[in-house]
Amino acid sequence: MSGRSSFAAHTYRVDAVVLRTHKLGEADRIITLLSSERGQIRAVAKGVRRTSSKFGGRLEPFMVSDLQLVSGRTLDIISQAVTKSPYGQSIAAHYDRYTVATAMAETAEKLTDADAESAGAQYRLLVGALGALARGEHAAELILDSYLLRALATAGWAASFDACARCGTEGPHSAFSAALGGAVCHDCRPPGSPSPAVQTMSLLAALLSGNWSVADNSEPAHRREAAGLVASFVQWHLERNVRSLRLVERN
Ligand SMILES: [Zn+2]
């Protein structure tokens, strides 16, 4: 019996999404996962690069699976993978979806690197956004910007697009400051702050709250302007470049 319980203590199951993978040795990969139960996990998938691998394509980026892992001394080892949502296939088939998913996964990795507390919420948010992307529910760049605003809000950096982010005076306001947290009133606006269109501020508010009827009907010019402001907000708060954001094609 003691052997049985010690085995159980070293094996665990999680629901997880693959954030990224890299090669290890001849046939293995290290898989960076975001799990709902344990936050970020880096684990080894042995033999996954062989065509005969029992994992098939189940550990490709953006796949959501029910995984069984065995605790290791340094890295855990994935022993079983059952696909829950095969988002990776549909996303990999479209370049715009793929670059957006890569930017979302990189952001999720950074936001959950040190913060295990919000990992469950970040997992649900990312899986929801990947699902919308895989099904083509909205324009890929809108899904990205909505995801980024909500992921930062979940991490404790909620932007404001109506009331002034600094003093709370009711909006609408015509200036934006990434450093102060969104819309800013005439008195609070730092010199040189951008003055986005009223429709751009409405679009940003819609993306943050998930008001898709407003977001889906927005004009390309306002989407472009909103994307630039979201990018500046994300960069400011992550303080490191989210490299893959630059790869996202903005038309
Ligand atoms: Zn103010």
From TrEMBL:
<dbReference type="InterPro" id="IPR042242">
    <property type="entry name" value="RecO_C"/>
</dbReference>
<dbReference type="Pfam" id="PF02565">
    <property type="entry name" value="RecO_C"/>
</dbReference>
<keyword id="KW-0233">DNA recombination</keyword>
<dbReference type="GO" id="GO:0006310">
    <property type="term" value="P:DNA recombination"/>
</dbReference>
<dbReference type="InterPro" id="IPR003717">
    <property type="entry name" value="RecO"/>
</dbReference>
<comment type="function">
    <text>Involved in DNA repair and RecF pathway recombination.</text>
</comment>
<comment type="similarity">
    <text>Belongs to the RecO family.</text>
</comment>
<dbReference type="InterPro" id="IPR022572">
    <property type="entry name" value="DNA_rep/recomb_RecO_N"/>
</dbReference>
<dbReference type="InterPro" id="IPR037278">
    <property type="entry name" value="ARFGAP/RecO"/>
</dbReference>
<feature type="domain" description="DNA replication/recombination mediator RecO N-terminal">
    <location>
        <begin position="11"/>
        <end position="85"/>
    </location>
</feature>
<keyword id="KW-0227">DNA damage</keyword>
<dbReference type="GO" id="GO:0043590">
    <property type="term" value="C:bacterial nucleoid"/>
</dbReference>
<keyword id="KW-0234">DNA repair</keyword>
<dbReference type="InterPro" id="IPR012340">
    <property type="entry name" value="NA-bd_OB-fold"/>
</dbReference>
<dbReference type="GO" id="GO:0006302">
    <property type="term" value="P:double-strand break repair"/>
</dbReference>
<protein>
    <recommendedName>
        <fullName>DNA repair protein RecO</fullName>
    </recommendedName>
</protein>
<dbReference type="Pfam" id="PF11967">
    <property type="entry name" value="RecO_N"/>
</dbReference>
